[in-house]
Amino acid sequence: MVSSDLASSTGWPGHHPVAYLPGSLPMGGVVPMTPVHAFDSVPPALQWQAQPALQPSRHDIELGGLLAFVINQVTTAEEADAMVRASEQCGYRDEAPGIATPPGMRMNKSVHWVADPEMLAPMFKRIAHLLPPVLDGEPLFQAFSHRINMYRYDANDVFNRHTDGNWPGYSLSPDRSTMLEWGPELRSGLTMLLYLNGPADGVIGGSTRLFSRDGRYVDVSPVKGSALFFRHGFGPASVVHEGCRVTGDVSKYVARINVMYGDAQG
Questions:
Q1: In which order are the strands placed within the sheet that holds 240-243?
Q2: Which of 62, 68, 96, 58 minimizes the C-alpha distance to 238?
Q3: CB burial readout 150-174, b (16+ within 10 A) else e
Q4: What distance in Å separates the CA atoms of residue 95 and residue 239, rounded to the nearest whole number?
Q5: 218 assigned to some structural domain
Q6: What b/e sequence results for 101-118 when a residue is b if at least 16 CB atoms lie within 10 Å of its CB, and e otherwise?
Q7: What is the DSSP string of 156-178?
Q8: In which domain, by residue range, is 195 found?
Q9: For residue 46, what is the DSSP state?
Q10: How do beta strands 227-231 and 187-195 pair?
Q11: Which CATH number fits the domain that encloses residue 98?
Q12: CA 90/CA 39 separation, integer angstroms
């Protein structure tokens, strides 16, 4: 765990590993024991409340029959900033735990952490009515997976063309010591890319490029507090996409959160 002196000096609780997974490096190779983090207690900055001023709205993206859409006003600017600070407290690294990518595909920095319902439940409640209620015959589960995969794109970083796999859900054990995997009745169906900053904050480049089956593409520019959603998995409905290169000195921050479908309790 992070020392209490350091935690008090930053205003954040300490953090500790709750899982170790093989972590792929950008140019190939694996770091066998790459940590997934959690905080020692729920950070005050991540104990979110209802935000009546937010008015989330959904905007569908024409992608030749593939499912993709943007929801605006998912978080406030202050909430987005808090997620960035949380990720920097845990610390970015070159390797990404549990992510298998070929050399040269994922050229950015990564940190994975397990968040608390105090943050994720208010976020889900704000936008649940805008999410597909059923996907492939499975109902929308009433919570996000608690595992958050965050990426920082520094100057010249890029995430080349790929599709996202579907995942089980995860949460913390009651004593906060371990990342627990949810049962097989629940699987993720949508990627949620939550943008934590963008061009208005000085980011140059860094759009997300979505490809249709015939090779056409749509670029989505990151806007702090908005989120891009698209189908993922290993079938033809999965959306091929790319995290375009950041060309300036302000880093881009984005969080991947998995939207879950199925009947079981997490």
A1: 106-107, 158-162, 240-243, 208-211, 217-220
A2: 68
A3: bbbbeeebbbeeebbebbbbbbbee
A4: 24
A5: yes
A6: beeebbbbbbbbbbbbbe
A7: T-EEEEE-PPP---EEE-TTSSS
A8: 4-261
A9: G
A10: antiparallel
A11: 2.60.120.620
A12: 8
Which residues neighbour 3 within 8 Å (Cβ) at sequence distance 6 or greater? 14
**Is residue 67 within 8 Å of 233, Cβ to Cβ?**
no
266 domain residue, yes or no: no
252 with 200: CB under 8 angstroms?
no
Q: pLDDT digit of tens for each residue in the chain (266 aa)?
A: 443 344 445 689 999 999 999 999 999 999 999 999 999 999 999 999 999 999 999 999 999 999 999 999 999 999 999 999 999 999 999 999 999 899 999 999 999 999 999 999 999 999 999 999 999 999 999 999 999 999 999 999 999 999 989 999 999 999 999 999 999 999 999 999 999 999 999 999 999 999 999 989 999 999 999 999 999 998 899 999 999 999 999 999 999 999 999 987 54
What DSSP line would sit under 192-256, residue for residue? Answer: EEEES--GGGT--B-PEEEE-TTS-EEEE---TT-EEEEE-SSSTTSPEEEEPPB-SSSPEEEEE
Q: How many helices (H) and strands (E) does the chain have?
A: 3, 19
Helix (H) or strand (E) holding 130: none
Task: Establish if 156 belongs to a structural domain.
Answer: yes
Provide the 8-state DSSP code for 7: H
Is 227 within the bounds of a domain?
Answer: yes
**If we measure between CA atoms, which residue out of 260, 259, 258, 236 comes closest to residue 98?**
258
**Total structural domains within the chain:** 1
Q: Which two tokens stand for residue 65?
A: 């029959």
Token pair for residue 237?
Answer: 């409905």
